[in-house]
Automatic annotation (TrEMBL):
Protein name per Swiss-Prot or TrEMBL: Very-long-chain (3R)-3-hydroxyacyl-CoA dehydratase
EC numbers, comma separated: 4.2.1.134
Keyword Lipid metabolism: yes
Pathway(s) of this molecule: Lipid metabolism; fatty acid biosynthesis
Organism, scientific name: Cytospora schulzeri
Broad enzyme group: lyase
Lineage: Eukaryota, Fungi, Dikarya, Ascomycota, Pezizomycotina
Amino acid sequence: MGVFEGQFPQWVYLIGYNTISALLWTFVFSRAAVTALTDDLDEVYPALRIWVLVAQSFAALDILHSIIGKKGLVHAPLLTTAVQVAGRCTVLWIVIEQYPSAALSPFYPWMVLAWSAADTVRYFYFATRLVGGHQYQNLTWLRYSAFYVLYPIGIASEVGVVYNAVCEAFGLGYDGHAWGYIAAATLYIPAT
């Protein structure tokens, strides 16, 4: 039963959660890649908006898992988990939903590709680790190596999306929004 000896309900739940998350992000990655390659980068946002919102919002459960982790569910640092999930959700639900044109730049597809590649690997890694406690060497290597490439692409793309929203907000006379996004990005980048 892997790392959850004697805790069958938690084990089944986490295998299910991680598998569903991995499959969601796999779908997002493959659809984003195909759309970007066959259509246009501008088509990634309309084609995937709902799927990215669902996949990333589902990841909010990671925060809950971290909170109850002290009781044996997962052992993930709460602050790191909360900052990453909240930062991504803020970019999606607050910045892009308010200024959708911010997602119609090359930054959005790169952000989605980086997030989905990283999270596909991460969630498959967790799911396979739970099944019998196995760690697959290639998946482990990919989990900890891809980060060095995907993290800078992801964070730079997030900043690019926010920058586009800031420009649009200033252009529309919503200076308060623009300065709020600048302040949030200034705090978020060092925290990640």
